[in-house]
Amino acid sequence: MRSFNSMLDEQMDDPEFATVFEAEIERLNAAVAVSRARGEARLTQEQLAERSGVSRVTINRIERGKLNPSMKTLSRLARAMGKQVRVSIS
């Protein structure tokens, strides 16, 4: 039986798959980061919306991984939570 990682490695050889997969990872990383930061700030989605000027619906879509936020939106959310956005290229 092949492992998940070996199957994924095989699929990543396909450039189209790799592009879609990386976009999904970025969206999910943003979802987890915003949700965790909001929890640490002890804010509801509504409170964060009021502080940031980003709608609660948009925040909800980001946290559910349904929307890949722009850097501008991430920065607005981060500032509203007293945090900063950091970008890493590896």
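the 2nd protein, sequnce then structure:
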Amino acid sequence: MWILIGEAWAFSSWLFEIETWSITKQTIAHCLCSYLGMTPLAILCGWFPLNVRWFGFYTLIYTGAYIGLWLIEMALARIKVIQLNQQLTNHRS
């Protein structure tokens, strides 16, 4: 089961290597792909019972965690871009 979980995440991470897609399209595809890959595996692993209440709770936690991590990563990327732009400006001066 752990191998399948690793494969699901490896495949979904590959989506970020499609250079013709925008970062928004890559992020949405990654979120959906990893959700659709992990949900059945989580059920098979017995991580939550198969009922609507737990499925909704899992979906809420997954979505919240994904959005939270995405916001952190975007903030870090913005800081890095600002730093690189400052280095380029200083180098040109």
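Helices lie at 2-14, 23-45, 52-92. DSSP finds three helices and no strands in the chain.
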